[in-house]
Amino acid sequence: MQGSEDLEALRREIVYLLRQQMEALDSPVGLTDARLSECYERQARVQELREKLQASITAEPEVVSTSRETSTAEQTSPNAAASI
């Protein structure tokens, strides 16, 4: 359960940062050097979060498949449970 909550938190932060980007780009004030710098920082953070999210998503199926393999081995070999 914790893993899905972590993924959801990553997604929420990405959406929040992207909304801030849109607000900055749509601002009637325009892009000052300071605001542009903030945009670059947010862009870098979004990239970090996307990589972390992708790593988390690709790591999950491995855990599930390993659990299934263990379960299958236990079902096919009655002595497997005793040796584990």
The biggest sheet amounts to: none
Name the helicity range.
over 70%
Percentage beta strand:
under 5%
Q: Please give the alpha-carbon distance between the first and last residues.
A: 26 Å
Radius of gyration, in Å, reads 22 Å
H/E series: HHH
* Beta strand count: 0
Which stretches of 5+ consecutive residues score pLDDT under 50? 63-67, 70-74, 80-84
Name the overall outline: elongated
Discrete helix count: 3
Mean pLDDT over the residues: 79
Number of domains: 1
Structure classification: mainly alpha
Written overview of the protein:
The structure is a single chain. The chain has helices at 2-26, 33-76, 80-83. The protein is mainly α and 84 residues long. The protein has one domain (2-73).
Q: What labels would you give this structure?
A:
single chain; 84 residues; mainly alpha; 3 helices; disordered C terminus
Structural topology:
Layout: H1 2-26, H2 33-76, H3 80-83
Helix pairs in contact: 1-2
Give the structure's gist in a few sentences:
With 84 residues, the chain is mainly alpha-helical. The chain has helices at 2-26, 33-76, 80-83.
